[in-house]
Amino acid sequence: MTISKGEVEQFFERYAQAFRDGLEGTLAEEFFRSLFSTQYIAAGPKGVMAGDNDHTFVERISKGYEHYRQIGNKAVTVSGIEMHSIDETHCLVHVGWSSEFEKDGRRIDVPFTNVYLLEQNDGMLKVFGWITGDEVQLLKDNGLL
């Protein structure tokens, strides 16, 4: 069965909730890991990497959430989804995000887009890859670093 846009939207609402939980320091490891395939690929300005969805993966992600908290990230929401089917069990998704920061008593909204590769196995969607832009530069451009 082909992946529907509704399924993708529901998936990214769960993903956004996991991100918010991470920002609050209440990330549930099993819930978070359930969003990802057993292995993944990631690409960004510094290159491409591959990894396993294991305890070490969650530790790295948790450190990332700690960094976001330190620079004032308060919330993240999905602002848009553009889905492209690849075949019946894979799709590419551009996800627009809106990240809310607080710095020096003022709110700073930072929009960005990431690209995700999803697979559907046993009726469950999972991220097996993602591509990000230059997050460090984006945060610098918004006075957060």
From TrEMBL:
- The lineage's top-level taxon is Bacteria
Return the protein name. Nuclear transport factor 2 family protein
- What species was this sequence derived from? Bradyrhizobium diversitatis
